[in-house]
Amino acid sequence: MPTTAKICGLTTIETLDAALAGGASHVGLNFFPPSPRNLSADQARMLAARTPDRVHRVGVFVDPDDALLDMAIAAGRLDILQFHKTAPARIAEVARRTGLATWAAIAIKTRADLDHARDVAGAASAILYDAKTPDNAALPGGMGVRFDWSLLDGFRHPLPWALSGGLDADNVAEAIARTGATLVDVSSGVETAPGVKDVDKIAAFLKAVRR
User: Fold this and answer.
1) Are 44 and 75 in contact (CB under 8 A)?
2) What is the distance of C-alpha 30 from the center of its chain?
3) Separation of alpha carbons 186 and 98, rounded Å
4) Is residue 141 scored above 80 in pLDDT?
5) Measuring CA to CA, how many Å separate 106 from each of 7, 73, 130, 171?
6) Which among 60, 91, 114, 150 has most CB atoms closer than 10 A?
7) Active-site residue 130, yes or no?
8) Number of structural domains found in the chain
């Protein structure tokens, strides 16, 4: 099964076009105000309108309230909701209310962290394995941190899953070969500064995934 890619935290037409041209299967639209990648309703509307329906629009949230969710779903024409630091019961509640697919981000540093994947099995549609950021970090992801991929060895995944955390054009092929991931997710690995995506880095990353 070929591996596909999500380019996350897009904020401009130019970088969205680069993701689409390179064959990204998913684009991530961030709705978390402390993030440099956060989008307004108008920005989300502009990017969503330019994204063809064959590409999944993923809204990225950190334990959001209903008002933020409703705005983002409408403006971003979202078909997947990605949750960080959100209780499984809340994810299940949102899935029932919206009828949309839900991803639960699981922050990984040790093998014990994988236990949380089982906690979300009855709530989310899929799991995004991400690297655990430092306790005092302002953001739950998108900081270029990676985890030890060998932690996934032999693990029985309770749901479909994707791999994130510190990926870039130089290491994504190794990550895919090492873990068997069929979907990879990148944000800071295609940036020149926090929140500033680079069209050449996006192209290089997607080319590496295709290889």
Assistant:
1) yes
2) 9
3) 26
4) no
5) 18, 22, 6, 21
6) 60
7) yes
8) 1
Of 31, 14, 33, the C-alpha closest to 22 is 14
- 104-132 residue pLDDT tens: 999 999 999 999 999 999 999 999 999 98
Report helix, strand and coil shares of the chain as percent, to nearest 5: 35, 25, 40
What is the DSSP-derived secondary structure letter of residue 136?
T
Domain enclosing residue 178, as ranges: 4-210
pLDDT averaged over every residue in the chain: 94
CA dist., res. 7 & res. 200, Å (int): 13
Candidates 203, 195, 111; CA nearest to 154 is 111
- Does the annotation mark 8 as catalytic? yes
Look at the pTM and tell me if it is higher than 0.85. yes
* DSSP H or E stretch at residue 196: strand 196-197
CATH of the domain at 96: 3.20.20.70
The answer to whether 143 and 167 are in contact (CB under 8 A) is no
**pLDDT tens track for 92-103:** 999 999 999 999
Q: Which of 65, 79, 113, 130 is catalytic?
A: 130
